[in-house]
């Protein structure tokens, strides 16, 4: 029976696969372990590399996801694919120190002097932990994000942003249906999704420089982090994506008026032509913004960008009809302000639901 399943999310980590498996073998001697790589169809052929390794070592498995991206969701699928009672999550790039895994497992099970924990976190910020080769600026950013996260979710951890942690299967099962799944910070998501605070413990380690390949952390990660925090705060009432979608909608109104003013007031074009152009520009800008922010994880590129734009135009066309229809209906009874607000709400609701189902279906 397997005691420990190590979930390894990968995207373009081919050169690190063999070395990680070798190191896990060294670190986990005496423990019955398996490693589940969850690869999002990396163009560098990581999945093929994992399968080749699995031929030589039956403790290695590969879950390959097609047409999807996302670190947290990849890890969730990995956890769901195993029956192990204890699950660890570790990056493939050897930045996390696999040699503390046995200590994490021991801490989870409890010792003569320490009670068992539900979640054990590899921490950069407890005494004995650290950051190898980080400049002051990057460390400040990381500490700021950590403080922000701790303000939103009371975790009792010094490093709630860690991507290196271990948990009991029962703990994961309690949270799995409430997870946002957005972005990178599965641990934070998990802690915020549990019905009662888990018993947590931290084990220090030094975050090493990446061994090969490059980090996937870009501006999008910061964005996804905010999305996760919003979702954890307000998600019970309003999905974070709807909030973002509405914010983009408001920006579209500003774009519309800017273009309209330019064409009608400044360039003295006919009103209908100005209005039609302004509508088209605003719709296009809404599409582009939603595509790069609201649905960053399902972003359309190349030819698919244009196809997405056409569906967006078509759907928002109906949205306008719904908006005007509802507002017209309420105008007599409720007055213009309420009628306009209701029209906008129904239009936005339709646009959100329909573009989510068609333009950015995942
Ligand atoms: N399946 C999948 N899909 N894996 C991904 C994706 C994705 O979309 N994006 C990244 N990964 C994998 C990488 O291949 C790597 O194994 C791991 O997730 C972490 O990605 P990095 O790009 O190396 O992230 P980082 O080093 O900047 O940040 C990591 O360490 C921090 C400190 O512990 C992450 O684990 C952060 O969550 C963590 O805070
Ligand atoms: Mn990394």
Automatic annotation (TrEMBL):
InterPro entries: DPM1-like (IPR039528), Glyco_trans_2-like (IPR001173), GtrA_DPMS_TM (IPR007267), Nucleotide-diphossugar_trans (IPR029044)
Places the protein is found: Membrane
GO molecular function, one term: dolichyl-phosphate beta-D-mannosyltransferase activity
Keyword Transferase listed: yes
Membrane-crossing segments per the record: 242-263, 269-289, 310-330, 336-354
Cellular-component GO terms for this entry: membrane
BP term (GO), one: glycolipid biosynthetic process
Domain GtrA/DPMS transmembrane: 245-360
Record's bilayer topology term: Multi-pass membrane protein
Location, primary (coarse class): membrane
Entry keywords, A to Z: Glycosyltransferase, Membrane, Transferase, Transmembrane, Transmembrane helix
Domain annotation Glycosyltransferase 2-like: ranges: 5-172
Superkingdom of origin: Bacteria
Family (UniProt): Belongs to the glycosyltransferase 2 family.
PANTHER family named among the record's database cross-references: DOLICHOL-PHOSPHATE MANNOSYLTRANSFERASE SUBUNIT 1
Name of protein: Glycosyltransferase family 2 protein
Lineage of producing organism: Bacteria, Pseudomonadati, Pseudomonadota, Betaproteobacteria, Burkholderiales
């Amino acid at each position: 029976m397997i005691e420990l399943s190590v979930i390894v999310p990968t995207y373009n980590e081919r050169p690190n696969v063999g070395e990680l498996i070798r190191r896990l073998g060294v670190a986990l001697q005496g423990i019955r372990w398996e490693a589940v790589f969850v690869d999002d169809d990396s163009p560098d052929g990581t999945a093929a590399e994992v399968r080749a390794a699995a031929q030589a070592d039956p403790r290695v498995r590969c879950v390959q996801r097609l047409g999807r991206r996302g670190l947290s969701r990849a890890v969730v699928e990995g956890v769901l694919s195993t029956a192990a009672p204890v699950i660890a999550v570790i990056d493939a790039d050897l930045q996390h120190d696999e040699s503390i895994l046995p200590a994490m497992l021991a801490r989870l099970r409890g010792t003569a002097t320490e009670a068992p924990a539900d979640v054990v976190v590899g921490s950069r910020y407890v005494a004995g932990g650290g950051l190898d080769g980080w400049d002051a600026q990057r460390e400040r950013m990381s500490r700021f994000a950590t403080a922000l996260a701790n303000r939103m979710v009371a975790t009792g951890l010094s490093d709630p942003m860690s991507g290196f942690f271990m948990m009991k299967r029962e703990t994961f099962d309690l949270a799995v249906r409430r997870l946002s799944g957005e972005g990178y910070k599965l641990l934070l998501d998990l802690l915020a999704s549990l019905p009662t605070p888990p018993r947590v413990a931290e084990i220090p380690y030094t975050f090493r420089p990446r061994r090969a390949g490059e980090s996937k952390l870009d501006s999008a990660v910061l964005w996804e982090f905010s999305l996760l925090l919003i979702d954890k705060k307000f998600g019970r009432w309003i999905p974070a994506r709807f909030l973002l979608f509405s914010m983009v909608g408001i920006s579209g109104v500003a774009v519309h008026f800017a273009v309209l003013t330019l064409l009608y007031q400044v360039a003295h074009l006919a009103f209908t032509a100005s209005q039609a152009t302004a509508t088209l520009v605003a719709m296009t800008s809404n599409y582009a913004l939603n595509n790069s922010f609201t649905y960053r994880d399902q972003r359309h590129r190349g030819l698919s960008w244009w196809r997405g734009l056409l569906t967006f135009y078509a759907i928002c066309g109906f949205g306008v009809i719904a908006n005007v229809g509802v507002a017209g209906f309420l105008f007599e009874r409720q007055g213009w302000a309420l009628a306009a607000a209701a029209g906008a709400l129904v239009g936005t609701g339709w646009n959100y639901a329909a573009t989510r189902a068609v333009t950015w279906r995942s």
